[in-house]
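Appendix C reproduces, verbatim, an entry submitted by the partner laboratory led by Prof. M.T., so that reviewers can inspect both the input and the predicted structure.
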Amino acid sequence: MSDVDFFNFAFAHMPLLLLCMGGVALVLYLSIRRKVILGYLDPLHFYWTFTFGTGYGVVLALYFEGFISFYYLCVVAGYALVFITLFSLGQRRGAWLYRAVKILLVPGGAGRFEFMLIFVIYLALAVFLLFKTGLGVTADTNRFEQNRGVGAFVRVADGLRLFVLSYLTLICCRRWSAAQRGVLTWTCIGTYAVLLIVSSLLNGAKFAILEGLYASLFAVAVQGYRVRLSVAKVAIMFTAVLVFAVWVLGKNLEQSGVDSDSSGAYMSNTPVLYERLALRVLANGDKYYLSLPNGVIERLKTDSALIQLLSPLVSVTKMSEIVGHAVNDYTVGRQSLLYWYPDYDTAGGPTSHFDLFSYKYLGLLPGIVFVAFIGFLLASIAYLGRRQGQGPFYAALCATLWLRSIAMLLEPAVGLAYVLDIFVLFFVIKAFGMMLRAATLPNQRVGV
């Protein structure tokens, strides 16, 4: 089913589609409601409840109308059940990861020196990317195309960005709770606000500003502060996020030469800007409607599961040179797009989702094992957030790991690479800090 076919279906069956999306999202919300750190503010709800809720809603609606077979409905539902079961069972099994993180990644004390080092590294990367690629929101085609050749730098910057925002939040909270509300505190708050906005513009994703806020709130909870946001404050926060998303979408349309005030193709009395926003929500199910009707997923091309899992670690460009073909073109999401639009040569496209990747690349039963692994690993990372009061560096690191690891649900290989990125980066930073302290300690003892 092509995009045009699906959107025609969607607007002809909107009540059914909305009912399926709402019903599935409610079920998914209840499935993790008591298993997340931040309650309804936890970022897992954005991915699992909203993104997968709408995506699975599309699958259910297409099944009711006869476009998707019962077999594929069972595959999608079965993998979701396996994931949530292992995520639930692994909630108290993360002590192994907690010990590894404390030993390998977290420096002693508050980690102020390490934070300043990370802050400087991030600023240097941000300046480099700004001059090299420009702001992500001003990309001529999309941010994936714009970042060709500098993807490794973008990945590192995105990970460090979340840590810096989280740690700055904790500095502000500590000073505010200690009634230190002078110029230094307001300077810190201002720095946080500027960094949140500018880094989100540099990232270019519509989700960027919300991701930064999620990381900040998560770090606050892990540090032991009580997160109390009234309905009004939550409404203001999400309104600001929505305004940012609409503005970014407007810039994308402008770069594509589309008049955002013109009438939509499917919603004739609505500006195309808001129609595109609605279509973007429906597109949470794009990998499903592109690949599952008529068993298209069985006809998609693949290379090797090992190549797909290793390519984000090695670098997609380098791996493509090694194997002799464009590795990114063989993700399930990208293949689903190319099946219908073989001449589409712009970077990006639908993500694969853990279920479709597992089914297509590993097969039905081995795929179940891989889904179980993802559920257990995410549960272990979530466990880190339950060890509160471990210091600001630990809390900010937990927030960073949690936000980066959830990407495994959307694109398993990329999410696993993000987690490894954090381990490598913070291990190096801790080691550097230890060596520097060891080098300066003798000088301090002799009074130098």
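Residues 222 and 388 are 5 Å apart (CA to CA). Additional entries are available on request from the coordinating office.
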